[in-house]
Amino acid sequence: MSGMRDSRHLWRGIAVVWAVLMMAPLAAAEDAVTPATAAPEGEDLVLEGLRLFTQETFGGNGRVCASCHPPTNNYTIDPAFIRTLPAGDPLFVAEFDPNLGDLERSALLRERALILVNVDGFDKPAVSRSVPHLLGLSQTISPGRRPFSRVHMTGWSGDGAPGDGALRSFATGAVRQHFTRTMARRACTAASYDPARCDFRLPTDAELDALEAFQLTIGRQSEINIEPFSRRPGEIVFRDLNVETGKFLFHTIAGGDNLACSTCHRNAGANDRSGNGRLFDVGANKDEAAPACLEPGAVPGDGGFGRVIETTESGRTLCGGTTDFPVRFFGNDRFNTPSVIEAADTGPFFHNNIVDGVEESVRFYNSSAFARSESAGGLAFNFFDEEIDQIGALLRTLNALDNMSNADRLGALARRQATPPDVAALAVRIAASETEDAIQVLTGGPLRLYRGAGVVSLLTRALAAEQAAIAAPDPALLSRAIRLRQQARDRMIGPRED
Ligand code: HEC
Ligand code: HEC
Questions:
Q1: In whole angstroms, what is the distance from residue 11 CA to residue 102 CA?
Q2: What is the Cα–Cα distance from 229 to 394, expressed in whole angstroms?
Q3: Which residues contact 341 (CB under 8 A, 6 or more apart)?
Q4: Average pLDDT of 137-147?
């Protein structure tokens, strides 16, 4: 998605785009039959969810879900985005509200975009975690066929949602964690809410339904197939040798304890080789750039899933350096495997944002932190720099293709006669920013991808057509952009030629 930095009023417009984009067929069918008194369904439910997500403060400290998951910044925050916010933004409430000094660690928030999360309960120290982007949630939260103690796997360690663990319940935990007006976290229901006695109000059942429905529409709605020679139809074959090599490396048993990237990230998604959502220890929580090493002694370790197992490790061993200090971890060190299709243009990378950029996150698998982890069993991947760049090229290409299909959907919406002009105008702007993201992700890495194939120049022409359409609306320009992107796609992927 895009790097657009627009203010909150735009989200209303985005809501309309969303509705038309996601729910157009539903709307037509249901128009006549929905009685005025019925609870919202379908399109209305999604729209209501988006409204709550971007505007509802639940009687709390002024934050909304979008304070940390802004739709115009891929539903996440990063240090560059944070620098654009005014000092009075509710994200920084811990800096200016004397009741909330302990709600965040300001330096970690501003410099690393890390948020305090009491994932082990409010009786245990809060860990510092990056904000997941929420793109493709519908594809990433199922535990699969294996037995798992909760309905969904949410949050970086799979145990983010309170109670039954379902995505629907996540909002309740998020309000209690992030929206409170004092550290006493006095919860009230919507019916009993009184600002003198309550620090926030809990979401109602109807609000939980709406938030869940909305969140399931964010980003990718299906899996892709990049398994080499999988014999399943639709395997994507890339026309750039570096990208295709990256695809093979991603699937080749190359390191760790008999592992390939695809063992855990099947088709670059969030499920393992057998299609199950799973937790793994890959050691990012014990990397020397982990938050516990940034503020020695002050920040606890992050033990991932569970809260019962407690271990204490030596800060000198974990972080290097000369002074020692204890680092406490609660959990089994396992984390929830994220999808990596969206990774290239949207940090954060790993639950603690320990690296910058997609190549660096691949390089993590060469590290001693990975080698020491349970999954690696002592063996890191030993990638050459060139191989790291080739896997990076794969992840960049997957992300560019995802951006390009987003741009197509928005462009198609904007050029329809039935689309109101203000919605169309906004859709074109988002489409253009998607095209721009695709160009950036293809050109921003160490390898020149699709060299000589004209892909970037086709995308640049598509972007120019969209920019012209922003200045003077014209469906022909949008059709042209879609055609140019299709030509670019045809030069990026194609049938196997051997
Ligand atoms: C102050 C910042 C902040 C706010 C506000 C916030 N979140 Fe989050 N969100 C996070 C962090 C940090 C995590 C990672 C938590 C974890 O690992 O358990 C997260 C994780 C999530 C996840 C799990 C995503 C996944 O891939 O598993 C969902 C869903 C989510 N948030 C929804 C919401 C909703 C809904 C709201 C509003 C009610 C909200 N968040 C408000 C910071 C925030
Ligand atoms: C044993 C399972 C396993 C293997 C093998 C594995 N990963 Fe991961 N990967 C994970 C888990 C779990 C995380 C999240 C860890 C965390 O946040 O602490 C992750 C995170 C990532 C991320 C960060 C994504 C984000 O949005 O934060 C990238 C990129 C990534 N892996 C790429 C790869 C590549 C490339 C390979 C092969 C070299 C690979 N992974 C091998 C399980 C695995």
A1: 30
A2: 17
A3: 136, 220, 224, 268, 269, 395, 398, 399, 402
A4: 89
Contact 330, 312 (CB under 8 A): no
**Protein residue whose Cα sits closest to atom 16 of ligand 1:** 155
Whether the Cβ atoms of residue 181 and residue 60 lie closer than 8 Å to each other: yes
Specify whether the CB–CB gap between 54 and 65 falls below 8 A.
yes
Contact between 27 and 43 under an 8 Å Cβ cutoff? The reply is yes
Please say whether the beta carbons of 348 and 74 come within 8 A. Answer: no
Residue 124 burial by Cβ neighbours in a 10 Å radius (0-12, 13-18, 19+): middle
Residue 413 and residue 24: Cα distance in Å, rounded? 10
pLDDT digits (tens, 9 = 90+) for 418-431: 878 887 888 898 89
Output the CA 133–ligand 1 centroid distance in Å: 9
Q: How many CB atoms lie within 10 A of CB 1?
A: 24
Which residue of 74, 340, 366 sits with most ligand 2 atoms within 8 Å of its CB, as the best mutation to test the pocket? 340
Per-residue exposure over 404-429, b if at least 16 CB sit within 10 Å of its own CB, e if not: bebbbbbbbbbbeeebeeebbbbbbb
- pLDDT for 312-322, tens place per residue? 999 999 998 88
Ligand positioned closest to the Cα atom of 77: 1
Bigger pLDDT: 4 or 41?
41
The C-alpha atoms of residue 164 and residue 172 are separated, in whole angstroms, by: 12
Question: Whole-angstrom Cα distance, residue 4 to residue 392?
Answer: 24
Ligand nearest to the CA of 255: 2
What CA–CA distance (Å, rounded) separates 223 from 75?
20
For ligand 1, whether the C-beta of 117 sits within 6 Å is yes
Angle at 9 between CA 7 and CA 14, to 5 degrees: 95
Polymer length in residues for the chain: 498
Asked whether 392 and 362 are in contact (CB, 8 A), the reply is: yes
pLDDT at position 374? 95
Minimum-distance ligand 2 atom for the alpha carbon of 283: 18
Residue located nearest, by CA, to atom 12 of ligand 1: 131
Cα–Cα distance for residue pair 378/175, rounded to 1 Å:
40
Asked if 115 and 109 count as a contact pair (C-beta separation under 8 A), the reply is yes
Look at residue 30 in the predicted model and tell me its pLDDT.
Answer: 29
> Ligand 2 atom 41: the closest Cα is on which residue?
261
- Count of other CB atoms within 10 angstroms of residue 324: 14
87-125 residue pLDDT tens: 999 999 999 999 999 999 999 999 999 999 999 999 999
